[in-house]
Amino acid sequence: MPPAAIDARSVIDFFTKGLTAFKASSSGFRMLRSLPHGAVTGSAPRQLIVLDSSFNPPTVAHAEMIHAAVRSSSVARPRVLLLLAVQNADKAPAPASFPTRLAMMESFGHGILDEADVEGVDIGVTTKPYFPDKASAIEETYAGMKQVFLVGYDTLIRVFDAKYYPEGSMDSVIKPFLAKASLRVTLRTGGKWGGKEEQHAFWEGLEPWQRLEVELVEGVGGAVSSSRVREKVRQGEDVGELVGEGVQWWIKEANLYVEDA
After folding, report:
1. pLDDT confidence of 133, banded at 50, 70, 90?
2. 223: Cβ–Cβ under 8 A, 6 or more apart, which residues?
3. Where are the alpha helices (DSSP H) in the chain?
4. Helix (H, G, I), strand (E, B) or coil at 16
5. Cβ(48)–Cβ(134) under 8 Å?
6. Closest CA to 108 of 13, 257, 227, 248
7. Which residues fall within 8 angstroms of residue 245, CB to CB, at 6 or more apart?
8. Which CATH superfamily is domain 3-35+43-253 in?
9. Where are the transmembrane segments (predicted)?
C-alpha cells in the first residue's frame, strides 16, 4: 500500500475495535480484514495458505515464504491468511502493540496482492496456542478449504512432540488435524536444530500418513529476520531492503523499535 494512502489513526482504531470485540467473544479465531477491501469473489479457492507469525515486523523473508508456497501450489490462485496469535491480549505486547502489528500486516498483505497470483489476503487473529486447535477454529470460517501452514522446523518438532498432548492422545489429535491441514516446513540448519540430514531424518521417522502432509523446503530470505530488522532500526540503519514500503512507513510513523523492548 502506498504510504500516502494510509490514514494511521483510522487503521489503528479499526484494528483496536476489532481486537476488543474478538476478546469479548468466545471465538478462537476471527478474520478482521479481507484484502482487497470489499472484493466479491466467485467460487471459493480450495487452498488456504496460512502464515502464523508474530509479525514484529513482517519482512521480505515472510513474503518469500508465501510467494514460494503460491508458486508450488497445485491450486490456481489460493487464498492467504496472515494469522496473529493474541492469546495474551491482556498484556501489553512489545515492542509493537497488536493493533500496530495488524496495521503492518495489512500493508504487507497489499504487497502480497500486488506480487502474487492469489485470490485474496485475509488478516486474522487467534487465541489458540496449538496448531490442531488453530486449524479447527479457522475451519469454521474457511469450511472445505485445505489449510497449508507455513512453519519453521522448530514448529514441526513441537507439533509431533508427545509432551504437548495428554498421555497417549497425540495420534487422535494429529489425525483430524492433518485431515484438514498440511505443514510446509522451512529447514533451519545450524545450532540446536542440526543440519539438513538430521532434519530430514526426523521427517523420515514420522509415520507414513504423517509424512504425506508434511513438506520440507529450503530456507528463503537469507539472514532476514524480524529481530534483525528491530536491531537495525535501533542502530539507526535503513531497513528498506528487509521490509516492504508500507511496513517501513509504519515503523517510521509509529516510531517502532528505536529502543529495547
Report:
1. very high
2. none
3. 8-24, 60-72, 98-115, 131-139, 153-159, 170-180, 196-204, 208-211, 226-234, 245-253
4. helix
5. no
6. 248
7. 2, 3, 107, 111
8. HUPs (3.40.50.620)
9. none
Question: What's the DSSP call for residue 182?
Answer: E
Rg over alpha carbons for the chain, rounded to the nearest Å, is: 18
Q: Who contacts 126 (Cβ-Cβ below 8 Å, separation ≥6)?
A: 28, 29, 30, 83, 84, 85, 86, 87, 134, 137, 138
Distance CA 111, CA 107 (A): 7
Report the SS3 class of residue 228.
helix
Whose grid coordinates read 520440507? 216
Q: What is the pTM of this model?
A: 0.93
Could you read off the pLDDT of 203-261 as tens digits, one per residue? 999 999 999 999 999 876 567 899 999 999 999 999 999 999 999 999 999 999 998 65
**Cell (9 digits) for 196:** 539438513
Q: C-alpha 192: how far from its chain's center?
A: 23
76: three-class secondary structure by DSSP: coil
Is pLDDT at 39 greater than 70 in this prediction?
Answer: no
Secondary structure (3-state) at 149: strand
Beta bridge partners of 182: 148
Task: Give me the sign of the Cα torsion angle 193, 124, 47, 162.
Answer: positive
Reduce the DSSP state of residue 181 to 3 states and report it: strand
In whole angstroms, how far apart are CA 245 and each of 44, 104, 224, 230, 235? 30, 10, 16, 16, 19
